[in-house]
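I'd like us to work through together how a protein chain folds, taking it slowly. To get us started, please write out a protein record for me. Go ahead whenever you are ready, and we will take it from there:
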Amino acid sequence: MDLQQTIRSQYHASLEMFKQTVVKCPEAMWDDSRHRNRTWLLAYHALYYTHLYLGPAEADFTPWPGHRDNIHRMGSPEHQSGTEAAYSQAEILAYVDYFQDKIDEMVDSLDLASDQSGFHWLPFNKLELQFYNIRHLQQHTGELSERLGQEAGLDIDWVGMKREGGA
């Protein structure tokens, strides 16, 4: 069994499900202030941390070129008040594409035998970090999917895995 291939497959599958929530989100829901964390913010947060935690450590992280400081943190007064400019769906999709192009290389460079996550606030090993990271992405994908279902009657398709060289 190729553990890194399995991890790559699950990151790609999770991101495909996440991507559906962005693509299918009606424009009126994207920056809707009825939600404590607006849809665009939830999407950016999920993507940012998935990207961050797939790297070796915080100090080694190079953000997506479209990153704006402190946007990835949910729950701040600025986010609640809506005083900051929302990322557009096109911008989030551009980040998804950017990140999808990096996943294979990032996973292949992981030292899955390391007993450190690389992030002082996450006290587990590098392999467990991958499970944690995929769960985090799926948690927020589930939240976004639930919003789509409840507010727009839309569903996303399940993606079980992505095989090498295909969907």
